[in-house]
Design brief:
Strand content: under 5%
Order of helices and strands: HHHHHHHHHHHHHHHHHH
Distance between the termini: 127 Å
Radius of gyration: 46 Å
Helix content: over 70%
Number of domains: 2
Number of strands: 0
Largest sheet: none
């Protein structure tokens, strides 16, 4: 209305009235600008209201997901929980199968770790020599080649299609024959160790008879009496002292107890006492290698601080390897017996290595644990 009134006034006014016309033009311009501003504000408010409605609609969509989305999340969470608890479910439904699976999976991991260690030990032997190995490394170097020979056929045959169904039951029911100690349980390791040790103990008495039969061939009267006292101690259920044994050391580097002079039956029984096969060539050389291996292990134990520094499992293995049953023995008694062995080993060289090979009967023939294993188990 103001805009129309201004136009009418401009038309009715005379040209002489320039001031009034200018005033009216200013008023017209000002009100025009105000109208433009009001139009812009109305447009902006309408756009803001439209955005707010869009945001509200989007927020309502987020807050209220569809049923399909809810079902997807539900089944995804169920699947994740199932995967996390898969072993528990299988253990509950198939306990025997899961036990076998765990034995094979854990055993394979341990075997692979020992194989890598064995390769490092072999490399160390080539560069630095076998005399630089520790006790654990010497034990691994002794046991791993046998384990590889035992398990290699199983791995090769199981790689053939459909043969796994044959190997698996054999490995399950005959683990001592088909598998290595990496796949045995703690109880299996104990049972198999006792079984092997008992087979070795059966040859202690025949070896003692072979040792006793050579007394008359000793020419030195004093040495003959010393050996006679040793035989008397063993026959009466006791053991000779370390000093008594070392007095006869010269007899084991020559006649009649050196590896070169003992008879074939004596060699055979000595192999059996140490758990070695008699169906092999160069039997005396095999015995020499075994004796030197034992001496290296003894030297490694002494370098590392003596028997007191060995772990419980390590000292049990050391006693069993040297002919004494460690079952039901206290740690102090095991360390004391191994100390006696190390005293003799420190005085032995390559020429008198036969003395160290005879120590399983000189130091352990009448030991209580050996007799319990050999005779009480037979009575049962």
């Amino acid at each position: 209305m103001l805009r129309i009134a201004a136009r009418v006034l401009c038309q009715r006014s005379s040209p002489s009235t320039s001031l009034s016309s200018c005033a009216l033009s200013v008023i017209h311009r000002r009100y025009t600008e105000n109208d433009n501003k009001t139009d812009n504000l109305s447009i902006a408010n309408s756009s803001d209201r439209r955005k707010n409605t869009d945001n509200v609609s989007e927020g309502s969509k987020v807050k209220s997901p569809s049923r399909v989305t809810v079902m997807k999340k539900y089944w995804i969470f169920r699947y994740v929980d199932y995967v996390k608890n898969y072993e528990q479910v299988m253990e509950k439904n198939f306990p025997t199968t899961m036990h076998v699976y765990r034995v094979f999976s854990v055993g394979t991991k341990v075997f692979y770790q020992d194989l890598k260690r064995f390769l490092k030990v072999s490399k160390k032997i080539r560069k630095q020599g076998i005399d630089t190995l520790s006790t654990d490394e010497l034990q691994l170097a002794f046991t791993m080649p046998k384990d590889l020979i035992r398990i290699s056929p199983v791995l090769l045959i199981s790689a053939i299609p459909f043969t796994f169904y044959i190997i698996f039951p054999l490995a399950l029911y005959f683990p001592h024959v088909v598998l290595t100690s990496h796949y045995w349980s703690i109880q299996d390791k104990l049972n198999f160790m006792l079984k092997e040790h008992k087979q070795r103990l059966k040859h202690n008495k025949p070896l003692f008879r072979c040792f006793q039969s050579q007394i008359n061939k000793i020419k030195d009267q004093k040495l003959q009496e010393s050996v006679g006292n040793i035989v008397a101690c063993l026959g009466s259920g006791t053991h000779p002292t370390v000093e008594d044994i070392l007095q006869c050391k010269s007899l084991f580097s020559g006649l009649p107890y050196s590896l070169k002079h003992i008879k074939r039956k004596h060699v055979k029984e000595l192999l059996k006492v140490h758990g070695m096969s008699t169906y092999t060539l160069r039997k005396r050389k095999k015995l020499l290698e075994r004796g030197l291996l034992i001496k290296r292990m003894d030297a490694a134990i002494q370098r590392e601080g003596g028997p007191s520094m060995l772990s419980y499992d390590a000292i049990r293995w050391a006693l069993s390897f040297r002919g004494l049953n460690p079952v039901n023995m206290s740690l102090d008694s095991m360390q004391s017996w191994l100390d006696q062995w190390l005293l003799i080993s420190s005085k032995v060289d390559a020429d008198s290595i036969s003395l160290l090979l005879h120590c399983p009967i000189l130091l352990a023939y009448n030991h209580e644990t050996n007799w319990t294993l050999l005779y009480h188990s037979q009575q049962k």
